Amino acid sequence: MRALDIISKKRDKLELSKDEITFLIDGYTRDEIPDYQMAAWAMAVLLNGMTHEETAHLTNAMANSGDVLNLAELNSIIVDKHSTGGVGDKTTLSIAPIVAACGLAVGKMSGRGLGYSGGTIDKLESIPGYQAELSTKEFISQLKDIGIVLAGQSLDLAPADGKLYALRDVTGTVPSIPLIASSIMSKKIAAGAEAIVLDVKVGEGAFMKTFEDARELAKVMVNIGKLSNRRVIALLSPMDQPLGMAVGNALELKEAVLTLRGKGPEDYHEHCLNIASYMLLLGKKANSLEEARIMAQKSINDGTAFEKFRQFVAAQGGDLACIDNLDLLAKAENILEITAESSGYIAEVNAQDVGEASVILGGGRTKKGDLIDPAVGVMVYVKIGDYVEKGQKVFDVHYNKAELVQNAIDKLKESIKFSEQPVQPPPPNLGVIGM
Ligand code: URA
Q1: Residue 3 half-sphere exposure, CB side, CA atoms within 13 Å?
Q2: Per the residue annotation, which of 10, 90, 123, 187 is the catalytic one?
Q3: Is there an atom of ligand 1 within 6 Å of 183 CB?
Q4: Could you give the 3-state DSSP secondary structure of residue 433?
Q5: Which of 164, 174, 217 to mutate to test the pocket of ligand 1 (most atoms within 8 A of CB)?
Q6: H or E stretch covering 334
Q7: Which of the 8 DSSP states describes residue 305?
């Protein structure tokens, strides 16, 4: 077999076999196939697409390119969730302890921020001492002991995806639905998940800007699950405005912990209950969504979800004092209030603009390796559809560097649009695929 023939076949819109795809991925992982051939192939896939079968073969070849965790000894169904990313999306921080407190093991490998969209590991690292880099042995042993582990990308899972993703990033081949779907699903399958809940975001602050693209991505991932013997469902949820109120690492961590104590913002609390319920249903802990939702809410009410979060933070070296007293988390030196410039109904709080404002303040990276400031970010006090009076507070900007703040203020002012007419708030959910 030759890489050249496989590239030419995809260029000519022909379907690749399992053996051809496996040959390509194995050769690339072992550095036997060079970047330029892989880039040409990725571009042919972007232009000509892949069938569901090809996409499933690609997923499995990448999942098998490194360690594949065998978690059978845990005697628990392993459930995972994945969000395609957004602004203020700190869901993993709340739902992992909720689901673990209900008796399902949650072992997750999470990422760092990407552009204006935040990352779970950056948020967790605002807890002093928190250790995200775990070995496979540590990951499994913590999962066995306390039923919850959130690690960074330190495990040798799906290395072919790591290499291919970096190549796609610099060759204009990221926005291909089969490549995105196989990239996400290969990591989930390698991490041992039997049941997976996907939260596919759609809107201004999301990777997928249109409902049609989001639905197609969801369908492809659910199909990969079917062809790989995994139970998978995908929820479509809006990301036109930030989720919850907090955007920024320590601010989001604080909001996630407050939610575990029953004091979170309504939209975020509701979203967490929704995702957790689907995880409990897919993980066979509940017989219906209603039953799952009651279990999830009970774990908040009786404090077991918060206690699970404490156990997990302690197991990964984090300072519990900061969790018990959230005022001890990093705080910005200055807080500046932004008020409404006119009265009216909120028609838009552009999530991408708010995410970018947080990055400008130092809450995200503009290039690889940038240090982030955990304390900075934005608190958002309005939602689409709210009526506000001129002069009413709409944002708090938490900042440390005065020279950065004006650009962030400009972004935030740009993010918000008013209407004289009442505006319908977006629905919390846009659909479910795979049920
Ligand atoms: N997230 C991933 O893990 N892979 C992609 O290709 C895009 C988003």
Answers
A1: 18
A2: 187
A3: yes
A4: strand
A5: 174
A6: strand 334-339
A7: H
Q: How far apart are the two ends of the chain, measured CA to CA in Å?
A: 40
Whether residue 168 lies in the annotated active site? yes
Centre of ligand 1 to C-alpha 343, Å, is: 40
Q: How many whole angstroms separate alpha carbon 4 and alpha carbon 180?
A: 23
**Residue 184 CB contacts under 8 Å (≥ 6 apart), including other chains:** 82, 84, 198, 221
Ligand 1 centroid distance, CA of 337 (Å): 35
Q: What is the CATH number of domain 72-324?
A: 3.40.1030.10
Spatial CB neighbours of 361, under 8 Å, sequence gap ≥ 6: 248, 373, 376, 377, 378, 397, 398, 399, 400, 401, 404, 405, 408
Kindly state the helix (H) or strand (E) to which residue 345 belongs, with its residue range.
strand 344-349
Q: What is the DSSP string of 346-401?
A: EEEE-HHHHHHHHIIIIIS-SSTT----TT-EEEE---TT-EE-TT-EEEEEEES-
Q: What is the pLDDT along the chain (435 residues), one digit of tens a residue?
A: 999 999 999 999 999 999 999 999 999 999 999 999 999 999 999 999 999 999 999 999 999 999 898 887 777 888 999 999 889 999 999 999 999 999 999 998 887 777 787 789 999 999 999 999 999 899 999 999 999 999 987 778 899 998 998 899 888 898 899 999 999 999 999 988 889 999 999 998 888 989 999 999 999 999 999 999 999 999 999 999 999 999 999 999 999 999 999 999 999 999 999 999 999 999 999 999 999 999 999 999 999 999 999 999 999 999 999 999 999 999 999 999 999 999 999 999 999 999 999 999 999 987 767 889 999 999 999 999 999 999 999 999 999 999 999 999 999 999 999 999 999 999 999 999 997
Instruction: Tell me which residue of 415, 433, 365, 424 sits closest to 113, measured CA to CA.
Output: 365
Topology of the domain covering 329-419 = Aldehyde Oxidoreductase; domain 3 (3.90.1170)
Both tokens of residue 183? Answer: 């990239």
Place of tokens 């957790």: 276
Give the SS3 label for residue 431.
strand
* Locus of tokens 């990221």: 174
d(Cα 226, Cα 17) in Å, to the nearest integer? 18
* 183 catalytic residue (yes or no): yes
Take residue 147 and report the two structure tokens written for it.
């039923």
Mutate to test the pocket of ligand 1, among 46, 183, 220, 239 (most ligand atoms within 8 A of CB): 183
Q: Domain 3-49 is in which class?
A: mainly alpha
Instruction: Provide the 8-state DSSP code for 242.
Output: -
pTM above 0.70, yes or no: yes
Q: Whose CA is nearest to atom 3 of ligand 1?
A: 184
